[in-house]
Specification:
Its EC number is 2.1.1.-. The protein is of the alpha/beta class. 44% of the residues lie in helices and 21% in strands. A 7-stranded mixed β-sheet has the order 3-2-1-4-5-7-6, with helices on both faces. 45% of the residues are buried. It binds S-adenosylmethionine. The site of S-adenosylmethionine has 16 residues, from β2.
Length: 249
């Protein structure tokens, strides 16, 4: 548990968020830290993250998640719906929930992770505007077609796969925002082909450096402009095993 150093960590989170233009309140910083504390504690018995220290967690989980807000400040005031695909311990879904007014739905295909995630949401009192669902993206998209203004994902799959996963969930003009480390030329080219097939347009690509040289990030934002040329979602696993950029090139 965090005690003496709480104050120091609050200020650290607030100052680091501010570096990216995200102003957060004391109570938001407290909730972000409380979530991280719960994740580090739960991680002792269930494998959720390779990060075990609060210091690393602030940079690599909290600040990294807040980059999604930095990339699209509109979500701070939006009361729309946001879907976080493959959320794991709730990154970036929970920090976005804490620091914005969007209604966040978090999904993961692993039931054990979703049960722990639900306990974090309950403990943090986020339950009135958060939802945790155990599902693969491809399955939930059939039930929640065209239902979200925003889709996010971090560390889940290649960009082309993420674009295919996100597309059916988005309303027209809805945005998919993905964070990536360094990408290969192939990953970018495959994403461009997939986006075209899915009716998605890359509208912004911003570069960020995480604090204390913790990493390089690119935040890519796609808008759902047109109907997809293929019926989405496709069957489970096809986005990876038979990528659209190969089939429909
Ligand atoms: C490396 S973890 C990242 C977790 C979290 N987003 C983060 O950045 O800390 C990837 C997660 O995506 C989930 N996942 C992978 N493919 C998925 C799919 N098709 N639908 C839903 N969840 C998926 C996995 O179960 C796993 O928890």
């Amino acid at each position: 548990m965090i005690h003496d150093s709480e104050e120091k960590y609050f200020n650290d989170i607030k100052q680091k968020a501010q570096l990216y233009g995200v102003t957060i309140s004391d109570s938001e910083a407290r909730d972000l830290l409380r979530h991280l504390d719960l994740v580090i504690e739960a991680n002792k018995s269930v494998n959720l993250t390779r990060i075990t220290s609060v210091r690393d967690g602030i940079n690599l989980h909290i600040v990294d998640s807040l980059l999604y807000i930095a990339a699209d400040l509109s979500m701070r005031e939006s009361h729309g719906r946001l879907l976080d695909i493959g959320t794991g311990a709730g990154y970036p879904g929970i920090p976005i929930d804490i620091c914005s007014s969007v209604n966040v739905t978090m999904i993961d295909s692993v039931g054990k992770k979703v049960r722990i995630l639900q306990s974090f949401v309950d403990e943090l009192g986020l339950d009135s505007k958060s939802e945790c669902i155990k599902s693969r993206a491809e399955e939930l998209a059939l039930k929640q077609f065209s239902s979200f203004e925003y889709v996010t994902a971090r560390a889940v799959a290649q960009l082309s796969t993420l674009i295919e996963y996100a597309t059916p969930f988005l309303v027209k003009n809805g945005k998919a925002i993905f964070s990536k480390g360094r990408m290969s030329d192939d990953e970018i080219e495959h994403a461009q082909i997939t986006a075209k097939i899915c009716g998605m347009k890359l509208v912004s690509r911003e570069t960020f450096e995480l604090p204390e040289e913790s990493g390089h990030r690119e935040l890519l934002t796609y808008v759902r402009e047109r109907d997809s040329k293929v019926n989405l979602p496709r069957r489970n696993g096809l986005a990876k095993s038979e990528p659209l950029y190969l089939k429909h090139h």
